[in-house]
Sequence to fold (118 residues):
Amino acid sequence: MNFWEKVTGSDLTRQWNAFAARAAALPADCQAAWGQVVGCLFPYGDFSGRNLTPIADAALALLEQAAADGQSVDEVFGDDIGGFCTALAGGHGARTYRDRWREQLNRNVARKLGRLGG
Fold:
């Protein structure tokens, strides 16, 4: 990836288009699950969303393997796709905007209390 691709995000567009093409080849129930997975993962994205591509790739590969093995979506993800995505993103160290805001708030409070108490 060169500088221009990184600045414009064209590499991300290519990757997500490739994900969409792979998902289109899946059965209908897996395609619906892929849509839910993407929706559940986006809150964990950083500014550019680059941190989501390996996570999304792993989830899509799991769906592709399940479709090849004839498994249902419930057998793979269970009944809570959102919980599965949270665990998957958390395992990769992705944080939501709430996590980042909470850390910022805690730093600001600690800094203010340090000034008042010191």
Remarks:
- The chain has one domain: 9-117.
- The mean pLDDT is 85.
- The domain at 9-117 is CATH 1.10.1900.10 (c-terminal domain of poly(a) binding protein).
- The two ends are 48 Å apart (CA to CA).
